């Protein structure tokens, strides 16, 4: 996938946002989201993200959720599913390849998370997408 696509947030524009104070600054939010998207296929620790923002793990987690409406892990999971959906739609990669490229530890975990998120397993979702083309 082209690098320019990796640095664009894949979450919908209407992602939940809290209006209370105490969130990340816009610069820190941009920085951490870019870091996540650049390393989406890797194992990401909240401690690493917090360190990139020069914040403690707990302060970062609260501020991130305040800014985005999602915990860091939920936001990462959302981005991984969004990237997986793009790969399912636009490539012929196996679900195993897609799961690993999107940062899931294995295909079983990917299928579980995808099904919980989308209400349908990734194979069936691929079949639906291909049928609707």
Explain what you see.
- The protein has helices spanning 3-6, 26-38, 46-52, 57-68, 72-90, 95-101, 107-118, 122-131.
- By secondary structure, it is mainly alpha-helical.
- Keywords: DNA-binding, Transcription, Transcription regulation.
- Regulatory protein of the TOL plasmid xyl operons. XylS activates the xylXYZLTEGFJQKIH operon required for the degradation of toluene, m-xylene and p-xylene.
- Residues 30-128 form the HTH araC/xylS-type domain.
- InterPro entries: AraC_XylS_family_regulators, Homeodomain-like_sf, HTH_AraC, HTH_AraC-typ_CS.
Chart the SSEs and their pairings.
Blueprint: H1 3-6, H2 26-38, H3 46-52, H4 57-68, H5 72-90, H6 95-101, H7 107-118, H8 122-131
Helix pairs in contact: 3-4, 6-7
Tell how many strands the DSSP assignment holds. Answer: 0
β-sheet strand percentage:
under 5%
Q: Detail the poorly predicted runs.
A: 1-9
SSE sequence, one letter per element = HHHHHHHH
Radius of gyration from the CA trace?
15 Å
Number of DSSP helices? 8
Q: What is the molecular shape?
A: elongated
Instruction: Give the end-to-end Cα distance, rounded to a whole number of Å.
Output: 21 Å
Helical percentage: 55-70%
Tell me the number of structural domains.
2
Main beta-sheet annotation = none
Oligomer: single chain
Query: What structural class should be given to the helix and strand makeup?
Result: mainly alpha
The averaged pLDDT comes out at 88
Organism: Pseudomonas kribbensis
GO molecular function, one term: DNA-binding transcription factor activity
InterPro entries: AraC_XylS_family_regulators, Homeodomain-like_sf, HTH_AraC, HTH_AraC-typ_CS
Pfam families: HTH_18
